[in-house]
Write a structure and sequence with these properties.
Length: 574
């Protein structure tokens, strides 16, 4: 038991220790630092980078100046040696050949390489540390045979014939040296002593033999001239200057850094904390996540307000859009109502006029019809009977025209609306007129959904629409064809649920000039003896009485199509 209590106590201590360590670990996360800490850290990094950049810039600038000074000294040395060699080559050696002949060779007076080295040997005490070398591959004197570095430089100049020299500071055994190399290019005048052994002076062959220093050709790079100067001490001074600059700049920026920290805390941090406090008091929000800095918490508050503003703006836009749609709908309803009132007034006036006209025409028309039928029965000759039949036929057509005018001019109050299934109404009409339709070699295709909703319809007037449309299709297909009747659910652009009845045929279609005025009164594609031009306007009027509409078009392949749109009753709307 004692051991158990000790174990429990140890576990409890570990948990408390872990809880205490969590805030410490949280403070180590940069995301949880305060704005001042982030600013100070960023400023410290920038300060350190400025110090490093300044020190590195000073170092490379001083190093470039050191190289320039070393180059100037090497140029003096090389110019002096080259001047002595040029004097031997252009003045002394030609004179010696004139005095002694071509077979004689005095090395101390006629060898430009020897004279150049001798001059530098005498310069050496005046230029401590400066080493001059003129070396070659397969040199006559083994002492001046090119070493590995010099062989590499010869290869470099051979691969880069356009290069006139190479220079730079290199490290040898931990010491910095400035080195400068120039290629040795053999010219035609050099071949007397370095071409074929048999062409060389006899005394030269006796002195060096015929194995080394021969076989050169014009333009060949077979050696280099080099200057080597120790610059370790000067380079160390350059590094010391760079370090001094780093220290001075670091100290100066540290003072500026400390002053900036104090000013930043008093000017920025204090103002931000006051602003954050005022913001929280004004909005009634809590301080929020303490892991963020002051700007983070302030930004979170602004984000919250911006989100609320955005949501409010979206709601206002939606309300405005809904209101605009409602206003547009009401305006359209008012315009439609106004148009309907004007139209009804016109129809009422037309109805009164047509009622008087038809009453005035029908009385004599009835009498004329009675006499025509009597003449047809009492006619003795076939010609008289034929004329009486023509009179009766034209009188019946006149009666149909009068009936169309009466129906077209009637007001909506004469409409008898009832709930009907569109499928049943269409089937009823087709059953009644099947013989008439099939008698003209017309095939009717019937494709109507069985589950169509019931809609308000005046069955007789819908039959009148079908009479007009099917009659037009039959007239357009005198040799026979197909009429396809379909019905199904549809939806208007404003979202209103509809029942759509389509009637298409395989005739030639409607003339393009008629499509624009298809539903205007007295517009017809038939002969005036066969049509009144009131059929389609009457269909349009009946559909408007049903709060629907009718459309007509030509099919892409062949034939015409008419579409009847009926709105669903309010109780059937989705």
């Amino acid at each position: 038991m004692k051991a158990y209590f000790i174990s429990m106590e140890h576990t409890s201590n570990n948990q408390n220790s872990a809880v205490k360590q969590q805030p410490r670990l949280s403070r180590l996360n940069p995301a949880n630092w305060s704005l001042q800490n982030k600013f100070m850290l960023g400023s410290a990094v920038i300060m350190l980078m400025c110090c490093l950049v300044a020190a590195i810039a000073i170092y490379y600038h001083q190093k470039k100046e050191l190289e320039a000074q070393a180059l100037a000294r090497s140029e003096l040395v090389m110019a002096g040696v080259e001047a002595s060699r040029k004097y031997v080559r252009e003045e002394l050696r030609p004179r010696m050949y004139e005095l002694m002949g071509e077979d004689h060779f005095v090395r101390e007076a006629m060898s430009t390489s020897y004279v150049g080295r001798a001059v530098m040997d005498r310069f050496a005490p005046e230029l401590p540390g400066v080493r001059y070398r003129r070396v070659a591959l397969n040199a006559r004197n083994p002492e001046y045979e090119a070493n590995i570095i010099e062989q590499d430089m010869i290869d470099y100049f051979r691969k880069n014939p356009e290069a006139e020299e190479w220079q730079g500071i290199v490290d040898h055994d931990g010491y910095a040296h400035f080195q400068r190399f120039k290629p040795v290019v053999f010219e035609s005048e050099c071949l007397h002593c370095h071409g074929r052994p048999e062409d060389a002076p006899r005394e030269l062959l006796e002195m060096y033999g015929s194995e080394h220093g021969f076989g050169r050709s014009p333009g060949e790079i077979a050696g280099v001239v080099s200057i080597d100067m120790p610059v370790q001490e000067a380079l160390s001074q350059v590094k010391e200057r760079a370090v001094s600059v780093f220290v001075v700049v670091f100290v100066a920026l540290s003072l500026i850094f400390a002053a900036m920290g104090i000013l930043f805390n008093r000017i920025v941090i204090t103002s931000l904390r006051g602003l954050l406090k005022d913001f929280q008091e004004a909005t009634g929000t809590q301080p929020g996540d303490h892991g963020r800095d002051e700007l983070g918490r302030l930004g979170a508050g602004f984000d919250s307000i911006m989100q609320e503003l955005h949501d409010s703006r979206s709601k206002l836009q939606n309300w405005n859009r809904t209101l605009e749609e409602e206003i547009a709908r009401v305006r359209q309803d008012l315009e439609n109502t106004q148009e309907r009132l004007v139209h009804n007034e016109k129809l009422a006036a037309l109805g009164r006029l047509t009622a008087n006209i038809t009453h005035a025409i029908r009385n004599p028309l009835t009498a004329m019809g009675g006499f025509a039928r009597r003449l047809e029965k009492t006619a003795q000759k076939d010609k008289e009977r034929e004329y009486a039949g023509i009179i009766l036929k034209e009188m019946r057509r006149l009666e149909e025209i009068l009936n169309d005018i009466v129906v077209f001019s009637q007001d909506r109050c004469c409409t008898d609306f009832e709930l009907h299934n569109p499928r049943e109404v269409l089937q009823e009409y087709l059953e009644e007129h099947r013989d008439q339709i099939t008698g003209q070699h017309i095939e009717v295709l019937f494709d109507i959904a069985p589950d169509l909703p019931r809609i308000l319809m005046d069955r007789k007037k819908i039959h009148l629409i079908l009479d007009n449309l099917i009659s037009n299709s039959m007239h357009a297909m005198p040799q026979g064809g197909q009429i396809h009747i379909t019905a199904g659910s549809s939806r208007a652009q404003n979202g209103q649920d509809l029942v759509k009845i389509s009637l298409t045929d395989t005739g030639p279609g409607l003339p393009e000039q008629v499509l624009a005025v298809l539903f205007e009164p007295f517009t017809t594609t038939k002969d005036h003896s066969l049509g009144t031009g009131l059929g389609l306007p009457l269909c349009k009027k009946i559909m408007e009485e049903h709060d629907g509409w009718i459309e007509g078009e030509n099919l892409p392949d062949k034939g015409a199509a008419f579409y009847l749109y009926f709105p669903l009753p309010p109780e059937n709307q989705a």
